[in-house]
Amino acid sequence: MTARAPAAAPPSRxxxxxxxxxxxxxxxGALTRMMLRRDRIRLAVWPLLTLxxxxxxxxxxxxxxxEAAERRTYAENLGDSAAAxxxxxxxxxxxxxxxxxxxxxxxxVMFAVALAGLLLAVRYTRAEEETGRAELVxxxxxxxxxxxxxxxLVAGGLGLLAGLLAAVLTAAFGLPAAxxxxxxxxxxxxxxxFVGVGVLFAQVFxxxxxxxxxxxxxxxxxxxxxxxxxxxxxxxxxSPLRHLSWASPFGWAFQxxxxxxxxxxxLLLPFACAVLAVAAAAALGVRRDVGAGLIPARPGRxxxxxxxxxAWALAWRLQRGAMIGWGIGVALFAVAxxxxxxxxxxxxxxxxxxxxxxxxxxxSASPADGWIAWTLSIAGMVTAVYAVSAVQRLxxxxxxxxxxxxxxxxxxxxxxxxxxxAAAALGVAAIMIAAGLLTGLVYGLRAGDLGGQLPRVLGGxxxxxxxxxxxxxxxxxxxxxxxxxTSAMWALAIGAVLLTELGSSLKLHQAVLDLSPFTHTPKxxxxxxxxxxxxxxxxxxxxxxxxxxxxxxxxxxxxx
Length: 560
Hints:
Elements: H1 13-21, H2 28-38, H3 40-64, H4 68-78, H5 82-88, H6 97-124, H7 126-131, H8 133-138, H9 146-172, H10 177-204, H11 208-235, H12 249-255, H13 268-285, H14 311-338, H15 341-347, H16 353-362, H17 367-399, H18 402-407, H19 413-447, H20 450-462, H21 465-481, H22 488-502, H23 510-513, H24 531-552
Helix pairs in contact: 2-9, 3-6, 3-9, 5-11, 6-9, 6-10, 6-11, 9-10, 10-11, 10-12, 10-13, 11-14, 14-17, 14-19, 15-17, 16-17, 17-19, 17-21, 17-22, 19-20, 19-21, 21-24
């Protein structure tokens, strides 16, 4: 006698109504707890770093500008400076402590929160699918949109925490409550918007690196649009370019005007865009297969061509897309900011605080040279971050088990890693050459001295290369010796950038500032160029590469 299996119970009407009523986010709670447990250190670093920077800046402002005369002097010196507006946004009510706090801190805090939001959003969505963990998790009782909800909870929660801490901290220093709330909401909503951008691009592209690159493109474009719009507003209030800041989420945050007559309705802009981006991501997420993207990756050839049969060709094929994307972004930034050099020359009168600020940033008595040198130094730092991402491709290839297949053939480990490292170095050089050539071309044409200015600006771009290569070599050494901590190089690279740009404002000891290689990079054009630090960078990079290559030949591949 054969036992008959009990018939499956039909789905209840309540269950059916639930299925039609809203997104299926079953398992979201368990996934969120798992992500918080797994990334507890990473998630703690961002708000603590942001809070530390904000506390130092607010403490410096409230301690240094208590007197009304000091605040008037600050407003007179920076209120009409297009250079200050390009970096610090439109400067409202600088005669009050709140206005100075916004000018000194809001840009940095927003950048940190927005960058963390988009990176975490891609990590919890597309990166999980890319590694195959999402498919494994989906085999359990996890709803179709459970992982998306988890990403929104964790990344969005981090933005909410950062905004809340910012509001509480500014209130603790005695600033007006309404301005503190507006400041915190602006930080949170801009962070949420970039979380939405991250999850949206994670649905569009199949690879996390492409999704991060597209999100970073939106991030970079937002910086450039706001800077051009705000600088144009200060330079010429009737300039049509002033409207560009309204096309940037960072511009919206400044238009909220914390501590300067808050405009609460502006907060609806980043909130609405964040909701639209998340809704689009949710709609796309249920219409595609797990692991696939809205834009499918192009299938490769059935058989590789002869020129593609080497480790060098494979590394170039894998790295060229990111190199082109980062190169376009860095070059556009350098051209957009460098094109203001002529205006800097006209506005920064000799002996003024604006001229001193440019001289401190760019290391030159000439405001135009100082502005270009500062622009190229920022481009160099961003290129160093690209170099870290290029080296991390080694870890991604190992993690996806593709390295095993490559090394199973007639390819040695040294050649495989050297090919990726060479591609990263080539990318660093190409990006800075493109930035230098385009910036020099624009500045030379505007100054009417193309033949004289182009080589100087190109030289200023090239002196940034050794520091970026040293950063890449450090990432390579971490990958070889401490592969579990490879992703920590992001924090080190970004920390070095922040240390270089904010260390002086925070009045850190020179020994601490010297930890960043960018502190020692010559400021060119206009400033003195000492070859010693460049040679030190090259020597240290060579030592790190040699030591890492030695270790990589001896450790297990794919074991972290």
